[in-house]
Amino acid sequence: MQIIPAIDIKNGKCVRLFQGDYDKETIYSSNPIEIALKWKNQGAKMIHIVDLDGAKSGKPENIQIIQEIIKETKIPIQVGGGIRNLVSIYRYIEADIFKIILGTIALENKKFLETVINKFKSKMIVSLDSKNGILMKKGWLRKSSWNLIPTIKQLEEVGVNTIIYTDTTVDGTLTQPNYNVIENIRKNTKLKLIIAGGISSIEQIEKLKKMKVDGVIIGKALYEGKINLKEVIKYVG
User: Fold this and answer.
1) Which positions ≥6 away from 135 have C-beta within 8 Å?
2) What domains are there in the chain, each with its CATH number?
3) E runs forming strands in the chain
4) Which residues are catalytic?
5) Which of 15, 27, 75, 187 is the most exposed place for a label (fewest CB within 10 A)?
6) Which helix (H) or strand (E) holds 108?
7) CA-CA distance, 30 to 111, in Å (whole number)?
């Protein structure tokens, strides 16, 4: 299992949102590059970055900061937020991004998804952000009409090989992941599965490992000191 620390960037700062609410943010640092170096020094082999401004506007807004993080850390970066056309994808590929995360566009435009999977399959991840079983879009700001499991099956048919699942109702709450939904996902697909949202203890991570989850993204629990990154990386082996 891979442990992936998260950095959410909004207005150039490192923040965390409560349940994806842009009006409920906590600023943890004015320098995301320093935070990225901190996670690297604690053993991170990959960092998960979300451009929150981009998720809202529909285009990358913090690419310069992300480029600096790549330059300074020299470890793989996966990035999402506002990546909704080929121009944005090429910009990130030119910036040496390791993995590119698609959200809204992957669900709204099957033809586009097929095109990018054919071109960049090894680089693409699709993020599925769910609220009460319904997938969210536009930076979690709007409900869609798509249900989780049927959508996953469609993604599998297109050729997607990795998904990130986030339950938006627990994201940023330091409670626990939605194990029932995760178990249902694992039963219905062989896609690589990365989990985000609500993770607050090593015991929860161990449970996810037993559920054959391939990776976990940890955010607020690291910033609040609930989980020590170096310890959890060593713990899961």
Assistant:
1) 107, 128, 129, 143, 144, 146, 147, 148, 151
2) 2-236 (3.20.20.70)
3) 2-10, 13-18, 21-29, 47-51, 77-80, 99-102, 124-131, 134-137, 142-147, 162-167, 192-196, 215-218
4) 8, 129
5) 187
6) helix 104-108
7) 39
